[in-house]
Amino acid sequence: MSKERGRVLVTGGAGYIGSVVAARLVETGHRVTVLDDLSTGFREAVPSGAEFVKGRIQEAAEVLDPSYAVVMHFAAVAEVGESMVNPEKYWDTNVLGTFALLAAMRGAGVRKLVASSTCAVYGEPTAGVISTRTPTAPVNPYGASKLAVDHMIAGESAACGLAAVSLRYFNVAGAVASHGERHDPESHLIPLVLQVAQGRREAISIYGDDYATPDGTCVRDYIHVSDLADAHLLALDAAAPGEHLVCNLGNGNGFSVREVIAVARKVTGHPIPEVVVSRRPGDPATLVASSARARERLGWVPRRSNLSEMIQDAWDFAQATAVKESTGH
Ligand SMILES: NC(=O)c1ccc[n+]([C@@H]2O[C@H](COP(=O)([O-])OP(=O)(O)OC[C@H]3O[C@@H](n4cnc5c(N)ncnc54)[C@H](O)[C@@H]3O)[C@@H](O)[C@H]2O)c1
Ligand SMILES: O=c1ccn([C@@H]2O[C@H](COP(=O)(O)OP(=O)(O)O[C@H]3O[C@H](CO)[C@H](O)[C@H](O)[C@H]3O)[C@@H](O)[C@H]2O)c(=O)[nH]1
């Protein structure tokens, strides 16, 4: 557990991953302020015990002051498909937004940052698992914008002594208590599959079955959001001033789209009909992590690596959310 007990600004703390980490920070005794514009997040996802400021990261200077010890930066636009058709939104929010956040941190003398990065920065590596030594070569504007952010953070660390950690998540899944994946419209595989099981969709569309993978569908490395929260707390004290530490976070196991659907059938007991449609532009065939550096530098060990448990937790969250929506509370 971190020794840090100063104020923490959590950008994007009304979103899926940010709200889970904000809740964990509150539980472990940190004073948390969430800054979120609610563009994709939900006010009710902000944990009780955290202060909430509705606003954009572009205006972070209005919130940050020297009482903050660290910023945890989750706020972003993060849809691969959308980034292919609306790339300027990705440069605007992810790059210009983070640029403004870093300037605000400099102005307020906040010298620690833990930021969300993504496996999308690696593009489509041809061989083996992806380590932090794998060359970065994004194949969509989302990944390109997040790589630009990582470069910006590296420069800030070198020039201004920022202690920074970029955590490159692979495919985040699962839920923790009342915090889970909830986007409107939803685009991610597991919540969509579960919407079929709930009767909210007729079938799950498989985006292509002609990839060079064992069953022809895309392979991803799914990581439980609770394990991600562990890594964020460990990251609080991991970098030295002037250092930009980059770690991958995944389990090192790949599951195809068809395997995910098969596990979801077992978890939900629903037949979950599938239909194969054309590929989604910008999707790499296979993304599987080596998290060796996270283990070495953060002492991080994933504890919830079972896909069936991740989908069970996501299912419990989806069912509880459906009840809340139907009863209004
Ligand atoms: N979900 C994944 O599998 C995954 C994988 C790799 C990386 N990531 C990264 O993790 C982070 C969180 O992703 P998520 O899945 O929780 O997404 P999310 O959409 O649930 O959360 C993002 C939050 O940021 C807020 N936000 C967006 N633009 C903002 C702005 N300009 N100012 C203030 N708030 C703003 C949104 O309202 C939302 O609450 C992102 O940086 C994303 O790139 C996610
Ligand atoms: O209805 C769907 C939705 C998704 N998929 C497939 O399922 C896999 C997973 O797709 P998601 O949309 O759930 O996740 P992505 O792999 O596109 O994206 C995730 O990983 C990215 C990095 O590649 C980003 O970090 C992003 O934020 C994060 O959600 C992909 O092969 C996609 O083609 C389908 O077949 N049908």
Supply the key terms.
three-stranded mixed β-sheet; binds nicotinamide-adenine-dinucleotide; binds galactose-uridine-5'-diphosphate; alpha/beta
Q: Count all strands and give the number.
A: 14
Ranges where pLDDT stays below 50 over 5 or more residues in a row are: none
H/E element order: EHEEEHHEHEEHEEEHEEHEEHH
Distance N terminus to C terminus?
34 Å
Strand content: 15-25%
Mean pLDDT: 95
Contiguous helical run count: 9
Describe this structure in words.
Pathway: Carbohydrate metabolism; galactose metabolism. Homodimer. InterPro entries: Epimerase_deHydtase, NAD(P)-bd_dom_sf, UDP_G4E. The protein starts with 6 loop residues before the first strand and ends with a helix. It has about 325 residues and is an alpha/beta fold. The structure holds nicotinamide-adenine-dinucleotide (NAD) and galactose-uridine-5'-diphosphate (GDU). The site of nicotinamide-adenine-dinucleotide has 27 residues, from helix 1, strand 2, helix 3, strand 5 and strand 7.
